Amino acid sequence: MNLKRIHHIAIICSDYEKSKDFYVNKLGLLPIKEVYREGRHSYKLDLALNGEYIIELFSFPDAPARPSYPEARGLRHLALEVESIEEAVVELKKHGIVPQEVRVDPYTQKRFVFFEDPDGLPLELYEN
């Protein structure tokens, strides 16, 4: 097997319009293609970051909540790289997103900060 990179990450949201606004207008991801799948009563929105397809945002009626805290099994969080934590935190706050305190990775000495999407999915910004 010759894995090359992660192709995409799929996220199921509870409120499609709210999550679409969050990922597009607040985080700045670019919509590539949006489809309403009539048979599933579901939207699928493909999003790109810096021209690279990265996230599939789905809506499904009555999708069950997924436990995140305390540390549940499964995908823990999605980390996005930024050049400046300070600038990113200012941008988050400008959009009404409240991040946790900025921390320093004890192994890499890089700074990072956690925040959540509208459904409580943990997201991380990691300074390059």
From TrEMBL:
PROSITE patterns for this protein: VOC
> Which Gene3D superfamilies does the entry link to?
2,3-Dihydroxybiphenyl 1,2-Dioxygenase, domain 1 (3.10.180.10)
Q: What organism is recorded for this protein?
A: Rossellomorea oryzaecorticis
- Please report the stretch or stretches of sequence annotated as the VOC domain: 5-128
Protein name stated in the entry: VOC family protein
> Which keywords label this protein?
Metal-binding
UniProt-listed InterPro entries: Fosfomycin_Res_Enzymes (IPR051332), Glyas_Bleomycin-R_OHBP_Dase (IPR029068), Glyas_Fos-R_dOase_dom (IPR004360), VOC_core (IPR037523), YwkD-like_dom (IPR037478)
Q: Is Cell cycle among this UniProt entry's keywords?
A: no
Family matches, as Pfam families:
Glyoxalase (PF00903)
Specify whether Metal-binding is a keyword of the entry: yes
